[in-house]
Amino acid sequence: MAQRRAILSRTTLTVALALLAPLSLSACGSSTGSSSGSADTLRVMDYYADQPDKGIYAKVLDACGRQDGVKIKREAVAGPSLIPKVLQQASSRTLPDVLMLDNPDLQQIAASGALAPLSDFGLKADGYAKGVVDASTYQGKLYGLQPVTNTLGLFYNKDMLDRAGVKPPTTWAELKSAAKKLTSGKRYGIAFAAPATYEGTWQFLPFMWSNGGDEKDIATPQTAQALQLWVDLVKDGSASKSVVSWAQADADDQFAAGNAAMMINGPWQFPILDKKTSLHYGVVQIPAPKAGGTPVVPLGGETWTVPQTGNAQRQAKAAKVVACLNSDKNQLSLAEQRQTVPTRTALMDKFAAEQPRMKAFTEQVRNARARTGELGKDWPKAATKIYTAIQTALTQGATPAKALKQAQDG
Amino acid sequence: MADVLRRAVRTKGHTVQAAESAPEGRRLGKLGKRGRRGQSHLLFLLPALAYMVAFFGYPVVKNVVMGFQHYTTTTFYTGQAPWVGFTNYRAVISSSVFDKALLNTVLFTVGSIAGQFLTGLTIALFFRRKFPLNGVLRSLLLLPWLVPLIVSSAVWRWILDQDNGVLNRFLGALHLVQDRPGWLTSTSLALFAVIVVNIWIGIPFNVAILYGGLQDIPEELYEAASLDGATGWRAFRYVTWPLLRPVVSVVLVLGVVYTVKVLDVILGLTNGGPANATQTIASQSYQLSFQQFDFGQGAALGNILIVISLVFAVLYLRANRRAVEQ
Which of A187, A291, B116, B132 has the maximum number of C-beta atoms within 10 A of its C-beta? Predict the structure, then answer.
């Protein structure tokens, strides 16, 4: 009896403990402080843990370190563990000297006070695409500089479109009819990702924003029309019903396997698609609602920050490394190596000319928006509402307007 | 976690009964009589107590407190978490997802436990018979336990895929279904599919403990019962079931406590979708804390989950006490 009770209470407490993960973040900080010590080694943290990105950044970081006369001690963590790690380091005051953040997370972390405004070190974001600056700005102050960005485009299978006599669509109406025409047998006209995660929201934003929708209030006719487009594509069989469970990588698999003639995806899929030599594909801009319209896409990519470590000398050197990562030369070389787009508008023409398949993405970046541009650290709540509405409309037969209203009201 | 499971398995039959027969009253009496010995007893308890306070007491208290605070990413840096009273609880309970998540939690728990227990018991009874390869097959049954959950949910996602999944291909080839069912993409099927996967994961645990319990029932009882005419179903009803009951209650309570908080299976298969069809209190708590960075609301939901677990713990203890008194 006694022992059984002990087991039971142990289990109950294990459950309790499992739910207390946030606490463990604050409770166990490592003791390797960065606030003390000399300024000849800088700690850098990012989430480029996989090749080739890992090696590309190792090279450019080392080069920037040499230029500023410091050694770089870099830690690359897996993507999902970056923010928990940052929070843990923030509470134990062990933040690195240079910190990379996914751009929609910057305002969240800047709001906590853990980052230093870059104006303290004389850094400015002159000549950068507006959306990129918006993402790295919190309450009027610049906290990060982002060397390269990426976004979504419309990938199409050249052979399939040729055979069907279809041109890459530029408007929603063309997209719908092209997708329908390209659907045959087991092949869907288009693949996109609409899962119950921020990835679903990210994929929907080009349609929502291009049509004048806004995240502050999603219960608007503009957003409803955009959602109607997705509902129509799934309803008439041009897109699989599975889109509600697909991540972007799944959509890419379908496209690569020839199960979809077009897809919404980003340039980070190039290396995977290029492995399949029999696949001939092209990329165009996301179709606009009407002819002559401009697609407004969301900006991806990571921004580099200087955390408040309390050591002015090291912070100054860290800021130099951030500036070096963002030099014209490094922007171009990073963009070229990582299939991304330089963020300084002056570099874009040259880049698009040199990298033809990045052209569609580069053109779109000029008008692109930051996800956190309007709502800042309240973006996660809005993003959750958006993917919830998408899922409701796609799976439950609710009209887009109703699904959006329901999600907006929480 | 795995450790607790293993310990629970070890605590089958004999150990449980042995522990039960140790008279607690006498031990307590000794403590009172010999103070010095009592003190040394306390000293021996200290490490365990310190451990419990540090690793269980503190987190629970902290989580309860966090539920009453506006606890965000900022708190981690500034340490400031304004007291907001019941605001977090009001917010999570009044949110439209809560009712659905609560219902899903109940359905998920009841469905999983019923499925795991019945299948587990059937398999355990089956393995009581002596037949060749009995041991090998029984150890193979433990396989789902050995596969990391991330891996098994990825494989299940692939099996259950609507267009190209093995299951739908198989059903289609047998002409069992007209349209390919969207196991993970239809709001009416997704919860069912997630429960089935969770049953698959839970069967080894149930088989292992129930099989252990069955081993402890003396063969003579069945012989005596069969002399009285009780064989087959009646032997199960009047011999197996009453003697297995202590083990059954351990399995069920542990099962409930493990299932109520299941997170990885849901995140791996559906992430709470489609349209919150598989959202449970645990997955919602995770999303609030780690995706929306609202740790206060996440903790509030977590506390609600702890209370649910505690209710079962209390029910279990009371049922147990009654059994002992009888």
Answer: B116
